[in-house]
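Curious: why this fold?
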Amino acid sequence: MSGTGRTIIAPGATLNAVSPNQVNLITRTLENGGIVLWTNGTLALNNSVITNRSGALFHAQGAGLLGTLGGSPRFDNAGTFRKSVNPGITTVGSGVNFTNYGTVDLQSGTLLCNGSFANTGAVTLSPGTTNRLAGGGSATGAFSAFAGAVVEWTGGTFTLSPGAQLNGAGLYRLNAGNVTADANLIVENLDVLSGSSTLGGAGTVTVASLMNWTAGAMSGTGASVCCRERACPFLNKTGR
């Protein structure tokens, strides 16, 4: 689909994206007000936009690629982006900017974002799922990871600004990515594992349960706080 116009999936309508290979969206806007069922294949964007409206559902049921053919393509989610059914990896390719104003609902497998990911809404991770952020980005919204789920930064710099939250008993992990915490945050479980990772920023990061610091750096004018009366793995004592 190409051109400067729009293709609109009306409320109550369904788009089945079932190509085993690749379909291309070139300079055009695909606007979903109903349901998109993306079951397999590659959706390739060339200077184009996919908009998922408020109240709409974009349902990734396979392990496909949302890739780029060039330009500055975007995926703007104001509704619900859901990944379920397939336990594999759904990939947002490098160069595709994913902005979440609504809800990202991960029910199975991994959502890998190689492009910039911005979260002003809510990202919810069911047990056993992973949101892997490899291209940097920002958040003023909430991540909620249930026990057994992982939010992992593996590349770029991701900025957590006021309003951002790292909720739940799941794991938040810096593994080659950098996190700038410019908000005061409470996180249950936090790992800093890679020598190329830095936890920085002006905010106070309070670890409520467990932090493993095996490599990397902590920097900035903020503070890292262990709030429970137990041994802090990164300081080998209780307290700040």
